[in-house]
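Person: At home tonight, work slowly through the protein below, taking as long as you need, and write a paragraph about the fold.
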Amino acid sequence: MNLHWDVQEATLRNLYENYQLTTSDLEWEPDYVARDEVHHAAYQTRIKVKNWASFDDPFKLFFQEYVKIQAEKEKVFHDAIRLAERFGQAKRLNPRWIESQKFYLPAVTNAEAEAHRSHMGIARYSQSSALAMASFYQVLDELRHSQNDVHALRYWSKYVDSARNWAVLFQHHWAVQVLRSLFEDMMTPQDPFESLVHTNVALEMGMTNLLFVAAPIAGAANGDTVFAQLQMSTQTDETRHMALGQAALRVILEDGNEENLALLQRWLDKWSWRMFRGFAVTGLLTDYYAENKTSSFKEAYERYYIHGFLEGLMEDFEPLGLKPPRFMKEMESEVDTISHQIFKLAHQYNYINYFRTFPPTEQDKAWLREKYPDWDALVGDYWAKVEAGDPGIVQGLPMVCNLCHFPAVFPTPEKPTLRSSIYQGRTYHFCSDGCKWVFDQEPEKYYKDRTLTELVIAGEAPGDIPALREYMGLPADGSWGGDLFQTDDWKAWSDSHQ
């Protein structure tokens, strides 16, 4: 017997052959209907690749191993909740960090639940069995993430009233419509393979390190191990999703089809902007709600998005024709301002919110001035007036972008960015060039959508404050809003830390 072989080569070959049994060997040719009936033309991708067999799942994951790995993650996360409950962690957190969870969790829970739907399209209609199987695992991942978010909400519902009403808040509350709009757009793509770009590339390669690395680091630094473990458990799956996106992009681009390249570029342009508009909200956690600050949103964006994502993406795929996202200059210009605008805006409308905002402390302001030298020029005067006794509120709902549902606020009054388009006799207003461009590319997808402000003006949503609060899922008496520093929770926490 000849025993002279390369053990590593033989092991890898055996692994690959076994993996083939769970992917390509599960394919079959239907004999009772035509293949066109199975893969209906209305749902087939416009992406054309000569040899989908060249797609190679980087992880080659077996279902048995998948279940084992995920079960361990679940155990660690649920142990974190049990320990937090046993030792009363929530009662020792700065209440202002808890306000960030009130805002964040109702938005992200539904978003994760909806994210699985678009990948079901890839799993169903992919011409590559290996890609279909990898997408199926991602469907399971997204469902797991949303279930863990619900567990986190169940934990917080013992301490926070609004955590019990998260589904209604996601449907109707004005501040959460940005993420609702984004994820409903994601789960209704014109092409199944568009999901690879919006989820695996623009979101998971581009934004998730902000969401699931920078934000949980801030959470851990502020004592919230439940949030930190929740986010890191999610991020362990994102690594696999990123690799899936990279592998699929390479197969498509190496095919050399110019129509494929044009589609991928348009999807990258669109979804890079949409993701930035939706997930710049991360800056609230790192720049404002975290008392013990670890990194600014600007620093995290430069580290994870520019250096970690964009530079690597261009190094790999620019030689194959892919260009940087269309609205990179606009994104870079807003990194200095976006978190401050959002936090100020939230405070201006605190009477219709379910989460509290607060004037930055002297410690906060010193840090913000160091990280953002133009902070005083941008919002310093506003917070000075609030500290002097001005409530700082604005009456009436803001104008809201007809594409992203982000309020049309501008860096400074001298730099308005409001844009408009007319479609079928109706004028649509947008917060930016990016949102106008996305709308103009496919207006038939968005033209029937209406913002909460438009619903109020049309009389289809209540116009008086108590009724509007109830419509959005809040108590009419305003008991979930108000000034954080006047609450009993804050006073008790402050007294205990003297």
In short: Residues 14 and 310 are 36 Å apart (CA to CA). The chain has a mean pLDDT of 87.
